[in-house]
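Annotated sample (chain length 151).
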Amino acid sequence: MSNSTGDKPSTPLHSVSVAGAVIREDGRMLVIKRRDNGNWEPPGGVLELDETPEEGVAREVLEETGVHVEVDQLTGVYKNMARGIIALVFRCTPSRGKERPTSEATAVKWLGPEEITKHMGSVYAIRLLDALEPNKTHIRSHDGIKLSENK
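Output written by the structure step:
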Protein backbone atom coordinates (compact mmCIF):
# COMPACT_ATOMS: atom_id res chain seq x y z
CA MET A 1 0.00 0.00 0.00
CA SER A 2 1.32 3.45 -0.84
CA ASN A 3 0.62 6.77 0.77
CA SER A 4 -1.05 9.59 -1.15
CA THR A 5 2.26 10.70 -2.69
CA GLY A 6 3.00 7.18 -3.88
CA ASP A 7 6.64 7.09 -2.80
CA LYS A 8 6.71 4.82 0.25
CA PRO A 9 4.40 2.33 1.93
CA SER A 10 2.10 3.55 4.67
CA THR A 11 0.37 1.69 7.44
CA PRO A 12 -3.34 2.30 7.83
CA LEU A 13 -4.24 3.61 11.28
CA HIS A 14 -7.48 2.46 12.85
CA SER A 15 -8.98 2.89 16.28
CA VAL A 16 -10.86 -0.07 17.78
CA SER A 17 -13.87 0.49 19.98
CA VAL A 18 -16.23 -1.91 21.71
CA ALA A 19 -19.91 -1.54 22.57
CA GLY A 20 -22.41 -3.61 24.47
CA ALA A 21 -25.85 -4.51 23.18
CA VAL A 22 -27.13 -5.28 26.69
CA ILE A 23 -30.48 -7.05 26.43
CA ARG A 24 -32.79 -7.78 29.37
CA GLU A 25 -35.11 -10.79 29.51
CA ASP A 26 -38.02 -8.55 28.43
CA GLY A 27 -36.13 -7.57 25.24
CA ARG A 28 -35.38 -4.00 26.30
CA MET A 29 -31.86 -2.72 25.60
CA LEU A 30 -29.52 -0.53 27.64
CA VAL A 31 -28.62 2.86 26.12
CA ILE A 32 -26.86 5.98 27.35
CA LYS A 33 -27.19 9.66 26.61
CA ARG A 34 -23.55 10.66 26.17
CA ARG A 35 -22.35 13.56 28.29
CA ASP A 36 -19.88 14.75 25.60
CA ASN A 37 -22.30 15.04 22.66
CA GLY A 38 -25.84 14.48 23.98
CA ASN A 39 -26.48 11.53 21.64
CA TRP A 40 -28.19 8.28 22.62
CA GLU A 41 -25.83 5.35 21.93
CA PRO A 42 -25.04 1.86 23.15
CA PRO A 43 -22.54 1.97 26.03
CA GLY A 44 -18.98 1.55 24.82
CA GLY A 45 -15.65 3.12 24.10
CA VAL A 46 -12.04 2.62 23.07
CA LEU A 47 -10.52 -0.81 23.59
CA GLU A 48 -7.40 -0.58 25.78
CA LEU A 49 -4.17 -2.18 24.51
CA ASP A 50 -3.91 -4.60 27.44
CA GLU A 51 -7.46 -6.01 27.39
CA THR A 52 -9.42 -8.47 25.29
CA PRO A 53 -12.50 -7.22 23.43
CA GLU A 54 -14.73 -9.06 25.93
CA GLU A 55 -12.94 -7.46 28.90
CA GLY A 56 -13.18 -4.07 27.23
CA VAL A 57 -16.91 -4.20 26.59
CA ALA A 58 -17.63 -5.37 30.15
CA ARG A 59 -15.48 -2.52 31.52
CA GLU A 60 -17.05 0.13 29.28
CA VAL A 61 -20.64 -0.93 30.07
CA LEU A 62 -19.90 -0.86 33.82
CA GLU A 63 -18.13 2.52 33.66
CA GLU A 64 -20.90 4.14 31.64
CA THR A 65 -23.99 2.56 33.22
CA GLY A 66 -23.24 0.92 36.59
CA VAL A 67 -24.41 -2.43 35.19
CA HIS A 68 -22.24 -5.57 35.27
CA VAL A 69 -22.66 -7.83 32.22
CA GLU A 70 -21.90 -11.29 30.93
CA VAL A 71 -20.56 -11.02 27.37
CA ASP A 72 -22.38 -13.50 25.14
CA GLN A 73 -21.55 -13.10 21.45
CA LEU A 74 -20.02 -10.80 18.84
CA THR A 75 -22.99 -9.48 16.83
CA GLY A 76 -21.39 -6.91 14.56
CA VAL A 77 -18.33 -5.18 13.15
CA TYR A 78 -18.94 -1.58 12.07
CA LYS A 79 -16.45 0.71 10.35
CA ASN A 80 -16.69 4.48 10.35
CA MET A 81 -15.05 5.09 6.96
CA ALA A 82 -14.55 8.81 7.61
CA ARG A 83 -12.73 8.41 10.93
CA GLY A 84 -11.11 4.96 10.65
CA ILE A 85 -12.89 3.59 13.72
CA ILE A 86 -13.73 -0.11 13.90
CA ALA A 87 -16.49 -0.88 16.43
CA LEU A 88 -17.00 -4.42 17.73
CA VAL A 89 -20.48 -4.91 19.20
CA PHE A 90 -21.25 -7.73 21.62
CA ARG A 91 -24.61 -9.02 22.83
CA CYS A 92 -24.50 -8.95 26.63
CA THR A 93 -26.74 -10.06 29.47
CA PRO A 94 -27.04 -7.88 32.59
CA SER A 95 -25.85 -9.80 35.66
CA ARG A 96 -26.02 -7.28 38.51
CA GLY A 97 -26.01 -3.60 39.33
CA LYS A 98 -28.54 -0.85 38.76
CA GLU A 99 -28.37 1.55 35.84
CA ARG A 100 -27.44 5.11 36.79
CA PRO A 101 -26.03 8.27 35.24
CA THR A 102 -22.23 8.40 35.33
CA SER A 103 -19.38 10.75 34.51
CA GLU A 104 -19.82 9.69 30.85
CA ALA A 105 -23.63 9.46 30.63
CA THR A 106 -26.21 12.04 31.65
CA ALA A 107 -28.97 9.41 31.40
CA VAL A 108 -29.20 5.63 31.18
CA LYS A 109 -32.39 3.91 29.96
CA TRP A 110 -33.80 0.55 28.89
CA LEU A 111 -35.51 0.97 25.51
CA GLY A 112 -37.51 -1.39 23.32
CA PRO A 113 -36.59 -1.86 19.65
CA GLU A 114 -39.24 0.62 18.44
CA GLU A 115 -37.94 3.29 20.85
CA ILE A 116 -34.36 2.73 19.73
CA THR A 117 -35.11 3.82 16.17
CA LYS A 118 -36.81 6.98 17.50
CA HIS A 119 -34.05 8.02 19.92
CA MET A 120 -30.88 7.04 18.07
CA GLY A 121 -29.18 7.88 14.81
CA SER A 122 -29.23 5.04 12.28
CA VAL A 123 -25.52 4.12 12.60
CA TYR A 124 -26.02 3.42 16.33
CA ALA A 125 -29.56 2.03 16.25
CA ILE A 126 -28.58 -0.63 13.72
CA ARG A 127 -25.92 -1.95 16.12
CA LEU A 128 -28.58 -2.75 18.70
CA LEU A 129 -31.16 -3.99 16.23
CA ASP A 130 -28.57 -6.29 14.61
CA ALA A 131 -27.85 -7.79 18.04
CA LEU A 132 -31.44 -9.02 18.28
CA GLU A 133 -30.80 -11.52 15.47
CA PRO A 134 -29.54 -14.76 17.03
CA ASN A 135 -26.39 -16.46 15.73
CA LYS A 136 -25.55 -13.80 13.14
CA THR A 137 -22.63 -11.39 12.93
CA HIS A 138 -23.20 -8.31 10.78
CA ILE A 139 -20.47 -6.36 8.98
CA ARG A 140 -21.40 -2.80 8.03
CA SER A 141 -19.75 0.48 7.03
CA HIS A 142 -20.91 4.06 7.48
CA ASP A 143 -19.68 7.63 7.15
CA GLY A 144 -20.53 8.61 10.73
CA ILE A 145 -24.09 9.60 9.84
CA LYS A 146 -25.43 7.23 7.22
CA LEU A 147 -24.97 3.51 6.60
CA SER A 148 -23.19 2.54 3.38
CA GLU A 149 -24.94 0.31 0.89
CA ASN A 150 -23.87 -3.32 1.21
CA LYS A 151 -22.20 -4.54 -1.97
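Annotation: The mean pLDDT is 93.
Annotation: The chain is about 20% helix and 35% strand.
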